Amino acid sequence: MPIISVNPASEEPITLAEAKIQCQVDADLTDEDVFIEELILSAVDFCEQYTGRRLITQEQKYIGKFLSRIELAPNLLSVEAIKYMDSQGVLQQLANDKFYVMNAIVGEVQACINWPAVLANHPQPVEISFTCGYGAAEDVPDSIKQCIRLLVGHWFRNREMAGAVTGSILDSASSLLNTFRVVNI
Asked: Shortest CA distance to 62 belongs to which of 90, 112, 99?
């Protein structure tokens, strides 16, 4: 499923100050700030990859073909536009009454009757702009935030393992994230 990020998240689920508390670094010491911020990004990436969900609201695009049902993302908030290259090679926008959005475990779109004809032999004639995520940082579930803090603290204390999630740390992360995990999206 070719999904690309258009606008990355504007904030992270935890702040630098929260991460510094987890790492037991005094707030007024700034020597490690850049490193801790990088650890936050890595932990967020791990959580998003593990759960299959975007944590903070962000815009994304599906680029591909019309399928009977097009899976977009868990935490689908809205579909802004469906554009396609018509059979004459002209870019068109599909009217909102020609498709419907289903928000189950994974948000998807389906045609109300049939998808329109697209330019033959075009490898990716369809572009769907959508928004997904939990919302702002305060909307991210606490157990996901706890996993981020756990990973940041572990990697801070075990710098040679930064990025590695194995053994008991993986067990802890899994127990915090499993209820949010969407497999095979």
From this structure: 99
